[in-house]
Specification:
Layout: E1 4-7, E2 14-17, H1 27-40, E3 42-45, H2 52-59, E4 84-85, H3 99-106, E5 122-131, E6 139-143, H4 144-149, H5 153-159, E7 163-166, H6 168-175, H7 181-185, E8 190-193, E9 195-198, E10 203-206, E11 212-215, H8 220-234, E12 240-243, E13 250-254, E14 258-262, E15 273-280, H9 291-296
Parallel strand pairs: 2-3
Antiparallel strand pairs: 1-2, 3-13, 4-15, 5-13, 5-15, 6-12, 6-14, 7-8, 7-11, 9-10
């Protein structure tokens, strides 16, 4: 094995080459892949040769894979429920024009951490490109471990032991979905510490992004001001880089050590086919579950149409 690691930032992000992840990996190779993730938080693999099956197989070395919501009477979008659709195409391969879904997807362009709105956090996300727009569509990543390391001690003391309430619907409201605070109150949310201990590296990390709505025990305005301050701190230029995509590229990010956001592109005219596997933190469930189907049972709302 001649795995090569090229750092992107001094403490965060790396391009990995010299290993064929489209083939089954032995124990030594698997350990090296996981060690690279623990150190760098985001790893970029170019021109992987992965397909749906090998994407899933490779992802499983990190743990239990979440499943996309079940759809009664409909087969999985890409033949496997382990593959989440992160593109802008309909089931028939046309560019998506549904207003409710387009507005919902705009939330992905805010700094966020996958599934922080679930009680069962997502540890890793592995996104594979099939088709990419001619311009734009990058993915941006922010280093929440180094951001925590560099916080003034007074801020570390201030946020120690605090929890945030996370809601998917809050970030969607910020992105333009016409929800009210009262409606969000009636939908599901999850509480998580503002500071997580990252087991793989032994470092602490901020766990705060667009899904974080309130700080438990704080006045709403004060809590939201603190959330904004921490996001702004963690997304300073020294903590951030972007990835430009080509078909066949795979990027893995550790949701417990980073934030990310999608870049703008001409979503109504440019095709983007991206498929993501998502690794749940912790041990597999004792019985099959379907938490995302429960989450999305609340439904989406389209913005009201206005006269031009």
């Amino acid at each position: 094995m001649s795995m090569t690691i090229k750092p992107i930032l001094p403490r965060f992000g790396a391009e990995v080459s010299g290993i064929d992840i489209s083939k089954p990996l032995d124990a030594e190779q698997q350990a090296a892949v996981i060690a690279a993730m623990n150190q760098w938080g985001v790893c970029v693999y170019r021109n992987t040769g992965l397909d749906n099956d090998s994407h899933i197989r490779f992802s499983q070395i990190f743990g239990y894979l979440e499943r996309a919501p079940s759809r009664p009477g409909k087969p999985p979008r890409h033949g496997h429920r382990e593959l989440f659709d992160a593109g802008n195409l309909t089931e028939t391969g046309e560019i998506l024009q549904d207003e409710a879904l387009l507005v919902h997807k705009k939330g992905d362009r805010l700094w966020h951490t996958d599934s922080s709105f679930m009680d069962m956090r997502s540890a890793y996300s592995l996104l594979l490109a099939y088709e990419v727009p001619r311009e734009g569509g990058q993915t941006w990543f922010a280093d929440t471990r180094s951001a925590y390391d560099d916080l003034p001690q007074s801020m570390k003391d201030r946020i120690a032991g605090l929890e945030a309430e996370h809601s998917l619907w809050w970030s969607r409201m910020l992105a333009g979905v016409p929800l009210t605070e009262e409606e969000i109150d009636q939908r599901s949310s999850a509480r998580h510490p503002l500071v997580l201990h990252h087991e793989g590296s032994g470092r602490d990390a901020l766990y705060v992004a667009a899904h974080a709505r309130d700080i438990v025990g704080m006045e709403r305005d004060d809590g939201r001001a603190l959330i904004r301050e921490l996001i702004e701190w963690a997304t300073q230029p020294q903590y951030v880089f972007s990835v430009d995509w080509n078909p066949g590229d795979l990027v893995i990010w550790d949701n417990l050590a980073s934030m990310h956001r999608g870049g703008d592109f001409d979503e109504r005219n440019e095709r983007r086919d991206m498929r993501r596997t998502t690794v749940r933190e912790g041990t597999p469930p004792a019985e099959p579950d379907d938490p995302f189907a429960v989450l999305f049972s609340a439904g989406l709302k389209a913005p009201a149409k206005t006269d031009a």
